[in-house]
Amino acid sequence: MVVTPDRPQWGLMIRFEHVTKRYADGTTAVDDLSFEVAEGELVTLVGPSGCGKTTTMKMVNRLIEPSEGRILLDGDDISTVDPVQLRRRIGYVIQQVGLFPHKTVLDNTATVPHLLGVKRAKARERAAELLDLVGLDPSVHGDRYPDQLSGGQRQRVGVARALAADPPVLLMDEPFGAVDPVVREHLQNEFLRLQSQVRKTVLFVTHDIEEAVRLGDRIAVYGQGRIEQFDAPAAVLGAPATPYVADFVGADRGLKRLSVTPIEPGDLEQPPVVHLDDPVERAAAALTAEGARWAVVLDGADDLHGWISAEQVRGAGGTVREHARRMEAWLPVGASLKQAFSTMLQHDAGWIAVIDEQSAGRFLGVLTPARLHEALRRSIDADAQELPRTAVAVESVSSP
Length: 400
Description:
Layout: E1 12-22, E2 28-38, E3 42-46, H1 53-60, E4 68-73, E5 76-77, H2 83-87, E6 90-94, H3 105-109, H4 111-115, H5 120-133, H6 138-141, H7 151-163, E7 169-173, H8 181-198, E8 201-206, H9 209-215, E9 218-222, E10 227-231, H10 233-238, H11 243-249, H12 253-257, E11 273-275, H13 280-290, E12 294-298, E13 304-309, H14 310-313, E14 325-326, E15 330-332, H15 337-346, E16 352-356, E17 362-367, H16 369-385
Parallel strand pairs: 3-8, 3-9, 6-7, 7-8, 11-12, 15-16
Antiparallel strand pairs: 1-2, 1-4, 4-5, 9-10, 12-13, 13-14, 16-17
Helix pairs in contact: 5-7
C-alpha cells in the first residue's frame, strides 16, 4: 500500500518502498508497506498488538530484515549498509530501557560515544550535557546506578543515551508504557520540549491513540500489517479514512481532537477592558455601555492582571486596583482547546483569558465555551475543505 499524503517541506529521511515481512510459517507481519518520513518529523505508529508497527520500526535498524522491498535512510538503501554501522546512526529507546545495571547513569549515557572512539572524558562530558537536557541534574544523578532511579528517571536516561551519538533518527518502542499515567504525561511533556530543541526524525510506536495524537506530527494507524490512514492527528480524528480507523480512534474522537486543536486569535472574544489605575466610575461606565457583567483588568503595559465585575463597581469609589481580582484562569495563545477546557473546569470559570507569552503577557482576548465549540467545529470543517481555519465560517452556537 502506498501512502503519499502531504508532508512538511523538509528533507526526506526514511522511505519504505513496497516492504513486506513474511515469516517461515506463512505469517505476514507487514504487507506491501510504502511511506515516507521527513527530516525532523515525529511519526507515531499506532495500532493494536500484533498489527506490525514494531516490526516496521525494527526493520529500520535491521533488527528484522524485510522479505521484499527496500528501506532508504537519508537516501541510502540500508540493506547495503553494515548493520552495526547502521545502528550507530540510529538512536533506539525501548519500554524496559535496557540500561547496564553495573554502570553509573553517566557511563550508561556515554556508552555509544565511547564505542565510537570518543575519549572517555569527552564522552562523559557529552553525557552530562544530555542528562541536563532531559531534566536530570548530572551532579545529582550522574554517579547513581539504574536501580537507584525511579522508572521515569530510567526512561529519561534511556532517551539521553539514545541521543548521545547525535543520531539523525530515533526509534522509540512504547518508551513510556511501563510507567504510571502521571509520570507518563510528564515524560511526554518533557519529550515534546526536547524534540522542539533537537528536531530528530522519530518513529514512535504506541498502542495508545491519545499518546499518538499528542506526540505525532503525523500518525500511521495500523490495521493488520497495513497502514489504514497516515495523516496529521487532527485529520485522523476529524475525518477517519475507514470504518476501522473510526472505530480505533473511538466515538470520543471529538474530545481527543481538542488536544490537537490550538487556540488561535480568531477564536477569541473581546470583552470590556479597563486598567488598574482607572477610576471605578470609568469601569462602571464601560460595563454599562456594553451591557457586560465583567471586564478584564490590565496593567500599565497592557498585560493581563485580573478581572472586575459589575457588582464590585456598583456604587464603589477609588480605583480599579482596589477592587480587581487576580486572574487564575488563563492560557497562552497556541495552547490546545483541551487545555482550555481543563482550565475552565479546574477554576470553575465561564471563560479564560488568552495572552501572548512572546510579548510578556499581552492580553489578546477571552475564550468562552461557545467560542471553544466554534473553534473545534471550524477546525474540523477546515480539514474537510482543505482550507485554513480563518477561511471557514461556522454558524455561531450562541446565535438564535
